[in-house]
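Pipeline run #58 for the internal structure catalog. This entry was flagged by the ingest filter as a single-chain record with no existing model, so it goes straight to prediction. Upstream metadata was stripped on purpose; only the residue string is passed forward. Reviewer on rotation: M.T. Logging verbosity set to normal.
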Amino acid sequence: MGINFKGLAVSAILLFGFSSVLGAAPRLQLSTAAVGPVLVASGATGTKTVEAYNAGDGNLNLTVQSSASWLTGAIGASRPCSNGVGSCLPVNITVSAGSLASGTYSEFILLTDPNAVDSPQQISVTMTVAGLPSSVTMYAAPGTNGNNGSPASQLVYPTAAVSGAVSTQSGGNWLQFTLSGGGSFSFGTAYNIQTTPLSAMAPGTYNGSIVLSGSPNSADNKTVSVGFNVTTSPIIQLPVTPLRLTGFSGTKSTGTIQFTNLGQGSLSVTGASVAVNGGAPSSTFSAAASGSTVTVTADPGSLSPGVYSAVVTITSNAANNALVSVPVSFQVSAANTPQIQQGGVINSATYATEAVAQGGIVAIFGSQLAPAGTALSSPSVPLVTSLAGVQVLVNGVPAPLFYVSPSQINIQIPYETTGGTTATIQVVNGSYSGNIRSVQIANSLPRIMPWPTYIVPGNNGVGYAIAVNYSDGSLVLPSANQIPGFQAHPAKPGDLLVVYCLGMGQTNPAAKTGVAGAGQSAGNALVTFGGGFNGTEFYTPALFAGLSGGVGLYQLNVVVPSGTIPGLVPLQFSLNGVNSNFVYIPVSLNGQ
């Protein structure tokens, strides 16, 4: 039985994305894409190795670049992989603490082979610099209405386990020294210095100290002086992560750095200057301050494709106005050349980087994927394979296009693409061919489509199913989650639901690539209501699982079993032995 709910614009969701075997080319793969934290003492260096290997044909020819001056990488000679399978190229990563203050720093290494599939790739690198300052200065706003104020914290990193004896010379018991996160100590684990403005503490400066002992490293056994400023002035908090900019030759890129005021009064950033970390002229970066925001502009000019870095130094009216700095990286691509970002081939049903079924819908993210200003949908069905001079090649064959823009393209994976293989994805923008990414193809990978969280907030990170109650055409959502133009209310036991899905694979009769289908069956589906923390599971066969009247769009017709426990009910199904994701539907006894 096929049911097509004519009023639900599911096709718009596909268009805008909630917005054969590899050929004779190398394919870049990494033993890991994340390194660290690499633990080093102040002034010291540390090394780690990541293995790059070729999952395709030919040979890898890698170049390596870093996004920070403290981080370098080099490609070593080919050697047997550490897992004993095949040959690998060691990517030797070196971090250098230099004069950096103790703390944790994160940047990335960029590996590129212009002829390889799945290039470029980033390796994120985190370095923890161990070492203890002789003094720290802390800032916090005073308490109000007889209450303590919000505490201020600073992490420090001894090289070994220590004990800390705390004392204050004024103001009472406002100073604490604890192992951050609790538990047993390991090298590089942070300790937390915390200062709390007690209710009786007036604005002013208070002094204390921490006497550290017990470390086998004499440099750790020291006294740390603590100055505590309780102030009614603004207190600036730096962003946790560096600013990352991407762009292409000939076009400027901008990004903003937002600062938080932990104190009182209005925070005003009064100045911002930029120091470039070599490799690029000083004119590459500029910064402008306004209010509590700094806008950073990166101008690639004639720079070659690669990664460039700088440090933005900030001044403000904050009490802690010692010059503060934020690292900036700028990844430059060649002009006009489409670039699919790492992890940029996404299953449109779940927005996850995972395998995709034959006939599945894929969202592709990157830069320069289409001419500037393009925002086009396929004008008709069957879907076209070219829009604004843009094509997406799947194993070298143009794929049907739902939507094309410079930063996102949505396509259908052709049904002819062989399941159980790795397929290639490449964007062609006019006369420019982009990099090639890979995606695993499954015969079937059923996925229930959840509502985007910006339309209907999910529950603990899990979305609500895009589902319709057949009896009245209403959306199966909590009554509080109304969508303009539709009615919405929970389902009740006995209701027939139409649940929209992707990724059920080929059907019987066979579906055609780029063509709308309706009524073709994808097989027998067994649906699960409930389970987990929601009590008893109820299993019921679907009345129908198959195409729903759109290109690559499927539906699951199922009756809510009697006995289903009211509440937010987990919903999942199995098609031909393959499990779907799970989503929620609201169920009540009376459907209200």
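catalog note: The radius of gyration is 29 Å.
catalog note: The mean pLDDT is 91.
status: ready for reviewer M.T.
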